[in-house]
Amino acid sequence: MKPFVLLATRAEDLPADAEYALFLRYSGLDERDLVRVRLEAEPMPHLDLDALSGIFVGGGPFNASDPPERKSAAQHRVEAEFAALLDEVVARDFPFLGACYGVGPLGLHQGGSIDRRYSEPIGVVPVTLTDAGASDPILAGVPRLFNAFVGHKEAIRQLPSTAALLASSPTCPVQMFRVGRNVYATQFHPELDLEGIILRIHAYGGYGYFADDEVDATIAASSRAPVEHPRRMLRNFVERYAR
Question: Is the domain covering 4-241 a CATH 3.40.50.880 domain?
Answer without folding.
Answer: yes
